[in-house]
Hints:
The protein is mainly alpha-helical. The chain is built from twelve helices and four strands, in the order αβαααβββαααααααα.
Amino acid sequence: xxxxxxINGVPVQTVYSDYKxxxxxxxxxxxxxxxxxxxxxxxxIDSLRRINTGGVILSRQEVRQAGSxxxxxxxxxxxxxxxxxxxxxxxxxxxxxxxxxxxxxDNLDYGIKISNTFWNKQRxxxxxxxxxxxxxxxxxxxxxxxxxxxxxxxxxxxxxxxYSENNDAYIKCNGAVRKIGFEKVFKQFCFVYNELLKTIxxxxxxxxxxxxxxxxFKITNAY
Length: 223
């Protein structure tokens, strides 16, 4: 494929002015969720006209999702957004509004607090896990079992195959989503999640407390 990328020199002040006017938008089918800390953002700003060394390296799951427009990848994203409590359910978001759906720590006055997410509150995933999109990875495995049953494998290598176009696993997976129906799978996932959440909220405790009598271990696998 020919690279038609055109690079033009634009002053930072011009970019900032355009940003304030709401010119920039984000297509969330390609852009990962915002996971940069304030310190990393400051390093990026300090690095303008220098090499950027303060960014966040893409996790394995973010690499899988990046640029993927398959039915399955969009299903994973939609389910992850639902569980995360994302305030925006559209693909196109103004760049200025992205801060509202950014994953943040408790000391910041914007975005989605990681400590308030289902995954962290129920001790299923750590804050670091969530920032690395382990929630989407876990959702991927759940969805794969829902649509492929015994053909599905809970391994990273199998997930790589599911996201690799023209691979047998990719073809089977997306074929199954189309056969069952995208919205039907999504609604089934959300129904079970909501029922589990209601059950947990009925009692004083969290997910590990209900499934372990003594020491907790491998909570993510248990979920």
